[in-house]
Design a protein that fits this description.
With about 425 residues, this protein is of the alpha+beta class. The chain has helices at about 1-50, 70-75, 105-110, 140-190, 205-255, 265-290, 305-315, 340-355, 395-405; strands at about 60-65, 85-90, 115-125, 130-135, 300-305, 325-330, 335-340, 360-370, 370-375, 410-415, 420-425. A hairpin with a 3-residue loop joins strand 10 and strand 11 (about 420-425).
Length: about 425
């Protein structure tokens, strides 16, 4: 719109300037033609009669030498620089009327008034002599009004052009913006349910093509998301049975008579298997819940976060074997009323992630009010990877973010120059 308005404004300005130039050019060409005809008539008379006197009339002052030209005129036109059939003119010239200036000579050209237009024409005769024709024009009141009318008309026409281009730009902008807004509104209302509906017409073929591409891209994304959701749902369902079988056999092993005869390492390995099976059970339940928008959240309980953090540290302490890593658990007991399964997954995931990616340094777990802050520093270069590459609790930190967002908890994780800091804020009791 602004490009069109700007183009119209430039066009109007060019028109106004050209009108003034062409008006002056028309006057100049008329004066030049009159001077050439006057010289031509004089040269014809001179050929027939060498004694023909120098032409003289009320319209022209004729000079045969530069020295004869009045000084004010020479200051204006510089006739010494003129060539054969050269000419020049000025409009609205204010020249000096000092004592040494024969001002009466100029006023005679314009009926006793200062001339509004002065014109000087130079012509070299065959004998090498020069003729200089000087004339002046003083517009009458009617002519002056006509000139003002022409100038005003040019100005009004220029303003009309600007208005016309502005109106055209506004109409074009509205005509184009309406279908653009329509396609924007249509795109914002696209859902999995209506993505297969027929496309509305957006007036322009280009916009219809864009809408078609958007629909196809949205359909592909929706199809991919649906496949992923179904895969997670089916996988979670199918994993329930082998997880239950594994958990049952672990309990059976613990009740066998020979369980007490197992060595410490064997019992520790069995405990790890037991923890892993429990983790898988919680994970499958969480994935099923995340993939069902209408799923009811598990029942809430009052949970002691300090105790839960200590248990998670103990369960994942095997990840720090052989590493020079200090653990610092700070804070007083903090109780929140939340689903225990999700609190367990989130806290265990964050602590496990910190343990896995700290090779030499420390892990600080601090509680304050209903907030949990986990900081690990001096992590190795291998730990500086994207969240999608993190191996924490099953699906890593992405799972933490999805659960926190679904439950309305505040979660923020940031990688600094020396480590990673994660902040999780629960709803207080």
């Amino acid at each position: 719109m602004w490009w069109i308005i700007g183009a119209g404004t430039i066009f109007a300005l060019i028109f106004a300037i050209m009108s003034s130039i062409l008006l002056n050019l028309g006057v100049l060409l008329k004066l030049k033609g009159e001077a050439e005809r006057e010289i031509s008539a004089y040269m014809s008379r001179l050929e027939n009669d060498p004694n023909t006197p120098l032409m003289a009339d009320d319209f022209y002052h004729v000079y045969t030498s530069i020295d004869d030209i009045p000084e004010p005129i020479k200051l204006i036109f510089k006739p010494e620089n003129f060539e054969h059939e050269d000419y020049d003119f000025f409009v609205d010239i204010d020249y000096d009327e000092s004592e040494d200036t024969p001002a009466d000579d100029f006023k005679e050209l314009c009926e006793g008034q200062n001339c509004q237009i002065l014109f000087l024409y130079a012509y070299r005769m065959p004998e090498g002599q020069w003729l200089y024709l000087l004339t002046g024009i003083q517009l009458t009141e009617a002519e002056d009004q006509e000139r003002d009318t022409v100038q005003d008309a040019a100005l009004y026409f220029a303003l009309f052009i600007i208005f016309l281009f502005s109106l055209l730009a506004l109409l074009l902008f509205r005509r184009i913006s309406q279908p653009v807004q329509a396609i924007s509104q249509w795109a914002s209302e696209l859902t999995v349910e209506n993505v297969k509906q027929d496309l509305p017409s957006f007036r322009y073929q280009e916009l219809n093509v864009v809408a078609l591409k958007l629909q196809e891209a949205f359909a592909r994304t929706a199809e991919s998301t649906e496949k992923e959701r179904r895969f997670l749902q089916y996988a979670s369902h199918e994993l329930r049975t082998p997880i239950a079988v594994a958990a049952g056999n672990i309990e059976l092993l613990e009740k066998l008579d020979g369980f007490s005869d197992l060595s410490g390492q064997e019992k520790q390995a069995l405990e790890r298997i037991k923890y892993s099976v429990t983790d898988m059970r919680l994970l499958t339940e969480t994935l099923l819940w995340l993939n069902r928008k209408d799923a009811i959240s598990p029942p809430v309980e009052v949970i002691d976060l300090l105790e839960l953090c200590q248990n998670s540290i103990d369960d994942n302490s095997y990840l720090l074997k052989g590493k020079s890593v200090s653990i610092d658990l700070r804070g007083l007991p903090v109780c929140v009323e939340e689903p225990p399964v999700f609190c367990t997954i989130l806290i265990s995931n964050l602590i496990r992630n910190a343990f896995q990616h700290t090779q030499k340094g420390g892990v600080e777990v601090s509680l304050s009010n209903s907030s949990l802050r986990i900081l690990n520093w001096e992590i190795s270069d291998s730990a500086l990877v994207t969240d999608s590459e993190q191996v924490g609790f099953g699906l890593g930190l992405d799972l933490v973010e999805q659960i926190a967002e679904r439950l309305g908890w505040y979660y923020h994780c940031e990688i600094g120059g020396s480590g990673r800091e994660c902040l999780l804020r629960f709803k207080p009791v």
